[in-house]
From TrEMBL:
InterPro entries: Gln-synt_C (IPR040577), Gln_synt_N (IPR008147), Gln_synth/guanido_kin_cat_dom (IPR014746), Gln_synth_cat_dom (IPR008146), Gln_synth_gly_rich_site (IPR027303), GS_Type-3 (IPR052725), GSIII_N (IPR022147)
Domain GS catalytic: 156-587
Organism domain of life: Bacteria
UniProt name for this protein: Glutamine synthetase III
Family per similarity comment: Belongs to the glutamine synthetase family.
Single annotated GO MF: glutamine synthetase activity
UniProt-listed SMART domains: Gln-synt_C (SM01230)
Gene3D superfamilies: 1.20.120.1560, Glutamine synthetase/guanido kinase, catalytic domain (3.30.590.10)
Domain GS beta-grasp: 62-151
A Gene Ontology biological process term: glutamine biosynthetic process
């Protein structure tokens, strides 16, 4: 029997393959490019391309593609075959270094948010050698960055790579101050836990809302939901187990470290977590994972729903973005150290994260802002829209002690010497997990829990890296060249705690009282909706930070703002239109059919027994008939608003109309439809109900 280690990474042109297939000088040169970002000469590129082609053809590939992540949120590929005619009438398989390094897809059909108006339509893709090439189907996929001809990033990967570079530079400066001369590189590590729903494909196909929008827009609450807590970590059903097995095999072949799988809180909800990797690889892998999850589901007669809130009334899905910083020497900078000196370094990085999150709450919030995620955040199942940090009682007490220059009297096992020059030594936090915090310290990493399940993790990590880089830059500027490093460090940590402790909150984030305290007492931001959040990216402090670190140009920021808003508008518009369509073509006809039969029954019964009251039928007819009128009115009202919306030229204005009017009307329409569903006989209802969908696998 083949074991996992036999086929793990078998479809990846990874280090093992490179070492085996490349001439040693080429391998060494490529390694330098991968590890140190050295540029690649054409001789090396040609040799790599040849080896890659031979390997891919051996594995059944006929085509190659530059695989990239445009601002649509999904990945894009355009396949070219390797074939070239040979003089004898046959073909040879060709692939050059130039084709490996650079591609030229037409950029005009991808969103560019205005960048295209000022620049050429042509775009180019550039190989990212730090992310291994892989085979999908019959195609060799080469991970690439996607830019306009003038160098504007048209994708999510380029700014992510830039943010990693900025973070590396500033973190190295800080590490030098602590005497870490051997560290060459600091990289963000990310482990995204992915939640999803699995439902039956035949049922899915009967629901236009699922097919068009990926989430249900109607659905009365079934008698049973998640209230018994019997799904979370429960035994996995055979059909789901077969799916997970198949999925794991596919992911492992692609070198994706799929590790943990379990049932989640809601019925039909599950989670998959990989082992963490460097941020750009984790991002590539998460995009691939989402794609393969859906592909494999189809083979099993299932559909994998990645929408943030596919069902009202039960939990939605998110993605926990576990994030830490690691040196090439193997040190996790968020791991408390052994000596007070190491702990001073840890505390400085921790404080940098606290300051970064406080100063750039808005950027973190907007990095996860989508129409879908707005339904999830703050709904008592996911963190609120207010950003705060959970540090745990022990670490918070240490920070308090430093801030107030008082001795720390934590748990007994804690050894603590606190003087002006000596920072405390303490043991790892032992407090319980806080699952309600948007940004929780979990011992040696931060878990950013606001990311939506269908979203790319690129944006969240760009903003995390950027905010952290900016803060470390400020710290390094202040500490470099001081005569008494320890005092300066102590003062800096103390001041940082004082200035930013408002962002630390260890209590229940789902509590309404917290939102009140956060906004009224602490002055934290509560950006409830996507349009509210997105607007903040244009604020001066944010534009200055992102451009000075060279993560985005001003034009790139504006383009992303427009694309995200447009996306929000389009998504909700499609949902609104789908609702109107389902109401007029399915729901109302179904209700009418039932009403017709009920009325027929009344007529038949009174004909049989003249004077019969027929109270039950008549009550139901009145109630349902009134609901049908209300449904019809609500649908017309929504429809009119959507028509009006189309005429609004400015995307920001349109987004506000959606936020304030359209979503409200959609909610009103849903209420009356769900009420009608709950009193209509099953056989009349035109599509599978929540009960069917949630308990149908
Ligand atoms: P949890 O802490 O949520 O109970 P795990 O400890 O298993 O679960 O980790 C969840 C995710 O965090 C996994 O994807 C894991 O690989 C990732 N992770 C663990 N350590 C780190 C780290 N130092 N940096 C980034 N991600 C990490
Ligand atoms: Mg977790």
């Amino acid at each position: 029997m083949r074991t996992v280690s036999d086929y793990f990474g078998s479809l990846v042109f990874d280090d093992r393959v490179m070492r085996a297939k490349l001439p040693s000088d080429v391998y060494a040169s490529l390694k330098r490019t991968i590890d140190e970002g050295a540029s690649l000469d054409t001789h090396v590129a040609d040799a790599v391309a040849t080896a890659m082609r031979d390997w891919a053809v051996e594995h059944g590939a006929t085509h190659f593609t530059h695989w990239f992540q445009p601002l649509t949120g999904v990945t894009a590929e355009k396949h070219d075959s390797f074939i070239a005619p040979s003089p004898d009438g046959g073909v040879i398989m060709e692939f050059s270094g130039k084709e490996l390094i650079q591609g030229e897809p037409d950029a005009s059909s991808f969103p560019s948010g205005g960048l295209r108006a000022t620049f050429e339509a042509r775009g180019y893709t550039a190989w990212d050698p730090t992310s291994y090439a892989f085979i999908k189907g019959h195609t060799l996929c080469i991970p690439t960055a996607f830019c306009s001809y003038s160098g504007e990033a048209l994708d999510k990967k380029t700014p992510l790579l830039r943010s990693m570079q900025a973070l590396n530079k500033q973190a190295l400066r800080v590490l030098k101050l602590f005497g870490n001369e051997d560290v060459k590189c600091v990289r963000p590590c990310v482990g995204p836990e992915q939640e999803y729903f699995l439902i039956d494909k035949a049922m899915y196909e009967k629901r236009k809302d699922l097919v068009f929008c990926g989430r249900t827009l109607f659905g009365a609450k079934p008698p049973k939901g998640q209230e018994l807590d019997d799904h979370y970590f429960g035994a996995i059903k055979p059909r789901v187990e077969a799916y997970m097995e198949d999925l794991n095999t596919e992911l492992w072949k692609l070198g994706i470290l799929a590790k943990t799988e379990h049932n989640e809180v809601a019925p039909s909800q599950h989670e998959l977590a990989p082992i963490f990797s460097v941020a750009n690889i984790a991002t590539d892998h998460n995009q691939l994972t989402m794609e393969i999850m859906q592909k494999v589901a189809s083979r099993h007669g299932l559909v994998c729903l990645l929408a943030e809130k596919p069902f009202a009334g039960v939990n939605g899905s998110g993605k926990h973005n576990n994030w830490s910083l690691a040196t090439d020497t193997g040190v996790n900078l968020f791991k408390p150290g052994e000596t007070p000196y190491e702990n001073a370094q840890f505390l400085l990085f921790l404080c940098a994260a606290v300051q970064a999150v406080d100063n750039y709450q808005d950027l973190l919030r907007l990095s996860v802002a989508t129409a879908g995620n707005d339904h999830r955040l703050g709904a008592n199942e996911a963190p609120p829209a207010v950003i705060s940090i959970f540090l745990g009682d022990e670490l918070t007490a240490v920070l308090d002690a430093i801030e107030t220059d008082t001795p720390y009297s934590g748990t007994e096992k804690t050894v603590l010497k606190l003087g002006v020059h000596v920072l405390p030594k303490f043991t790892r936090d032992t407090t319980d997990r806080n699952r309600t915090s948007p940004f929780a310290f979990t011992g040696n990493k931060f878990e950013f829990r606001m990311v939506g399940s269908s979203d790319s993790i690129a944006c969240a990590n760009i903003m995390l890296n950027a905010a952290m880089a900016e803060t470390l830059k400020e710290f390094a500027d202040r500490l470099e060249g001081v005569s008494d490093f320890e005092s300066a460090l102590h003062d800096l940590i103390k001041e940082t705690i004082k200035a930013h402790k408002r962002i630390i909150f260890n209590g229940n984030g789902y509590d309404d009282a917290w939102i009140k305290e956060a906004t009224e007492k602490r002055g934290l931001l509560n950006l409830r909706t996507t349009p509210d959040a997105l607007a903040t990216v244009l604020e001066k402090k944010n534009v200055e930070m992102l451009t000075s670190l060279k993560i985005f140009s001003e034009a790139e920021i504006r383009s992303r703002y427009e694309i995200c808003l447009e996306n929000y508008c389009k998504t909700v518009n499609i949902e609104g239109l789908t609702m109107v369509d389902m109401v007029r073509k399915e729901i109302l006809p179904a209700v009418e059919a039932y009403l017709g039969d009920l009325s027929g029954t009344v007529a038949a019964k009174t004909a049989a027994v003249p004077g019969l009251a027929c109270k039950y039928e008549k009550d139901l007819i009145s109630k349902l008939s009134k609901l049908a009128d209300e449904i019809s009115d609500a649908a017309s009202s929504l429809d009119t608003t959507l028509i009006r919306l189309k005429a609004i030229p400015d995307v920001t204005d349109a987004a506000y109309v959606i936020r304030d009017v359209v979503l409200q009307k959609m909610a009103e329409l849903r209420v009356v439809c769900d009420e009608a569903e709950s009193i209509t006989a099953d056989k009349y209802w035109p599509f599978p109900t929540y009960g069917d969908l949630l308990f149908g696998v």
